[in-house]
Amino acid sequence: MTQTHSSHTGSRIVLWLVLLLSLLLLGGLTVFAVSRNPLYSDVGRNKLSKYRFIEECKSELGKQLTEINKTVQGGAIRADFDPRRLVAGVANNPQGAGWVLGSQFTASRAGAPSQDVPFLCQSDAQGKVQLQVAQ
């Protein structure tokens, strides 16, 4: 009876060790994934998260396209974005607090060929977003 009891104790110790090692591995993977997050942002320095900045830039572009579409005939112009290209194009503003995004979108309209259009978007220390579209 003593042998059975000691083998159960040994199995429990192995089980607890496996559980502990699994938790440590999971914690390490979490730290690794968080440190590699492409949308990580210093909100304290830049006043906006990187995600919010990208969304504000897309919104500003949408407003400009709405105004352009009011004056253009032949169908509305649409903007399509490559999300990976947007995230890769964002950097800290070298002139101080804020973000800078240099990227492009694909402008398309029914009956016309699509065209890649470069744009630059930046935010200042107060989080105000400005957009410049290449003509």
TrEMBL record:
Domain of life: Bacteria
Annotated protein name in UniProt: Uncharacterized protein
Gene source species: Deinococcus sonorensis
